[in-house]
C-alpha cells in the first residue's frame, strides 16, 4: 500500500537557494550572514508506535554556506513526521552544536495550493548539553515553511540565551527544487 504523506507529500528531492539570511549572536551584538543552502528530503516510509500511532516519515539533511567566504556555517538533519489521525506535524532537528529540538504544529493548505506548516518548540522540546544550557541556551524554536510547487520558503526563529541576553536568532531562505 502506498504511503500517505499528507501535507509532507511535496517535501521530496533536492532544493537549492542562494539568497538566505542569517542573523546570529555575536559577542559584539549581532552578525548577519548571507548564505546559500541545499536541502535534500527523502521519503522513508511510515512507522507504527505502540501499535496505535502511525507516522509518515520524511528525512532531510541541509547544509548552509556563507556566500561571502564559502564557510560552512550550519548543518542540520532530522525528520518531518505526519500523524494523519491527529493531523499533527512534527519536526525533529539535530544540529552539530550538541543541540536537538522537537517542534510540533499543523499544516494549512490555501486555495492556491500553498501548504504552510508552522511548528513550535518550547524549552521542554530542546535537548542540549550542560555547556550549551549554561552558555548558549536554546529556549524556543518556531519554524514556518511554505511550499508551493517547486518553491520552498521558510522563516525560523531560534531564541538563544547568550552573552547575557535573550537573542532572536533568525534564518530565512527561498529554495527551488532542482
Ligand atoms: C539556516 C539555519 C542556521 C544558520 C545559518 C545558523 C548559523 C549560525 C551562526 C553563524 C552562528 C554564530 C556562530 C558563532 O559566531 O559562534 C550561530 C549560532 C548559534 N546557533 Fe545557529 N544557525 C542556524 C540555525 C540554528 C538552529 C535551528 C538552532 C537551534 C535549534 C541554532 C542554534 C544556535 C545556537 C545555540 C548558537 C549560539 C552558539 C554561539 O554563537 O556560540 N541555529 N548559528
Note the main attributes of this structure.
single chain; 178 residues; mainly beta; ten-stranded antiparallel barrel; 1 helix; globular; binds protoporphyrin IX containing FE
CA distance, first residue to last residue: 28 Å
Task: Provide the low-confidence segments as ranges.
Answer: none
Radius of gyration: 17 Å
Strand content is over 45%
Helix segment count?
1
Global geometry: globular
Order of helices and strands: EEEEEEEEHEEE
Q: Strands of the biggest beta sheet: in what spatial order?
A: 1-2-3-4-5-6-7-9-10-11
Query: Which hetero compounds are present in the coordinates?
Result: protoporphyrin IX containing FE
Helix content: under 10%
Task: Compile the SSE list and pairings.
Elements: E1 13-26, E2 29-49, E3 53-66, E4 72-83, E5 88-95, E6 99-109, E7 115-121, E8 126-128, H1 130-135, E9 136-148, E10 151-162, E11 165-177
Antiparallel strand pairs: 1-2, 1-11, 2-3, 3-4, 4-5, 5-6, 6-7, 6-8, 7-9, 9-10, 10-11
The protein binds protoporphyrin IX containing FE (HEM).
Protoporphyrin IX containing FE binds at residues 22, 24-26, 33, 35, 64, 73-74, 93, 95, 97, 99, 101, 136, 138, 141, 158, 160, 162, 169, 171.
